[in-house]
Specification:
Elements: H1 12-36, E1 38-40, H2 49-53, H3 83-97, E2 104-105, H4 111-122, E3 129-133, H5 143-149, E4 153-157, E5 159-160, E6 163-164, H6 166-173, E7 178-184, H7 194-201, E8 208-212, H8 217-221, E9 235-239, E10 250-254, H9 257-270, H10 276-313, E11 317-318, E12 330-334, H11 338-347, E13 350-352, E14 354-358, E15 361-369, H12 371-375, H13 380-395, H14 401-411
Parallel strand pairs: 1-13, 3-4, 3-7, 7-8, 8-9
Antiparallel strand pairs: 2-10, 5-6, 9-10, 11-12, 12-15, 14-15
Length: 429
């Protein structure tokens, strides 16, 4: 009998054993369901099996601090055998972003952690002003509070259809106290106009422009959206699991040595363990993405537009008719009973995201995303069929739903984009 620190009479040990068994049972029972579910959630995606396998490797238990792979500097040896893959990943991201490998930082452990590092590094002295996009215009919910916690003054500005209100921004810049313009779009159906913002910020030194492209990184790296670094942004940050199909972690990048040094210094003090296995998974995904990213990114946007049009044809109120519905992976849909429709879809294996008070759209509504089904090979035909299924859920029409959903769940996933990633001898794939 195994020793325990708990009094058996308390039942604690027995309860723990029961929970462990339940966790194992639920994981096994839901694995097939999860693998075949159709996820229309814009803030989620799926890694390739090869990248995902790294998360379950022994490297998830290990530190790896020797970024330069310097001989004689291996204070922690557990990651030594594969640390070159992380370096190859930085080089891959640098090729995709057209910057130097040493100016790509893969150490942030999430998109929000990357935001914290950027604000700490670039936000200036306490009391400086940091400007970001208001939450009502699609900015991230946490930016303002985070800026304030770092001792800065936060100034939100509005944005419409990807265009920041330059009048509001210049009013803030004219105070002479702005250290950082942190432009982040959590909820947007349109490309952020970086060039106009950069041109304005450049007129008010020492203000810096930083772009958070968490939702659109895959579209940027796949050349379907402009690279903010090409249009005057001094630095970017991102999570790696939305339109870019990597693990839950973050990235920072720049083309400026001074900016990199500031970001690196802040990162070093704010991230100790950088979750080595997820860094390896990110590296693997970047290398794969180089082989298929452009086709995938183009298909993500094309599928979003087809889905929006198909939903309109079936009587749905899709936001953004006057502006072409979407230029990203996001499609917003108003419904009378979004939670009820979501419940029915979930029972059929189709998962949607509900958000409240999206820009210009009060109340709860669907915020749909096409990145994950597109990665798994979904086509325009599949988008039209998904619109049909969503209409069946709205109308509580189950007569044909099971057959069509079964066909869709069997079809999507047969030709994922990562199959185009070859692995020639000697390559890190």
């Amino acid at each position: 009998m195994h020793a325990t620190n708990f009094d058996p009479a308390s039942g604690v040990a027995v309860a723990a054993t029961g929970h462990l068994a339940e966790i194992s049972g639920r994981t096994a029972a839901t694995e097939l369901v999860n693998r075949t579910a159709i996820n229309l959630v814009p803030s989620e995606n799926r890694m390739s099996p090869a990248a995902h396998a790294l998360l379950g490797s022994d490297y998830s238990n290990r530190y790896c601090f020797n970024e330069r792979l310097t001989a004689g500097q291996w204070e922690f040896r557990g990651g030594e055998a594969i640390a070159e893959l992380e370096k190859a990943g930085r080089e891959s991201f640098s090729r995709l972003l057209h910057t130097a490998p040493e100016w790509v930082n893969l150490r942030p452990i999430s998109g929000l952690n990357a935001m914290m590092i950027a604000v700490a590094a670039l936000g200036g002295a306490p009391g400086s002003m940091v400007v970001s996009i208001s939450q009502t215009s699609g900015g991230h919910y946490a930016t303002g509070a985070l800026v304030s916690r770092f001792g800065h003054r936060w100034r939100p500005v509005d944005a419409v259809d990807g265009r920041i209100d330059l009048g509001q921004l210049e009013q803030a810049l004219a105070t002479g106290t702005v250290a950082l313009v942190y432009a982040d779009m959590q909820n947007s159906r349109h490309v952020l106009d970086v060039g106009a913002v950069a041109e304005l910020v450049d007129r008010y030194p020492p203000a810096r422009l930083h772009i958070d492209c968490s939702h659109t990184l895959g579209l940027v790296l796949g050349s379907a959206h402009p690279n903010p670094l090409d249009y005057g942004a001094g630095s970017i940050s991102s999570s790696l699991h939305k339109t870019f199909p990597g693990p839950h972690r973050g990235l920072l990048a720049t083309r400026d040595e001074t900016t990199h040094a500031l970001l690196r210094e802040a990162q070093f003090m704010m991230v100790s363990s950088h979750h080595f296995a997820t860094a390896l998974a990110a590296a693997r995904t970047a290398l794969e993405f180089e082989t298929y990213g452009k086709g995938y990114a183009t298909a993500v946007i094309a599928n979003a537009r087809v889905l929006a049009a198909a939903l309109v044809e079936r009587g749905f109120d899709v936001a953004g008719a006057a502006s072409g519905y979407t230029d990203t992976h996001q499609v917003w849909v108003r419904l009378q009973d979004p939670f009820g429709v979501s419940d029915r879809l979930a029972r059929w294996g189709i998962r949607v995201n509900i958000q409240r008070d999206l820009p210009g759209c009060p109340g709860p509504m669907f915020r749909l995303g096409t990145a994950e089904p597109t990665l798994l090979g979904a086509t325009a035909i599949d988008m039209r069929d998904l619109a049909a299924v969503i209409a069946m859920a709205r109308d509580e029409d189950t007569s044909q739903a099971a057959a069509l959903v079964g066909e869709l769940r069997g079809r999507i996933g047969q030709r994922p984009w990562w199959l185009l990633a070859a692995a020639p001898e000697g390559a890190w794939l």
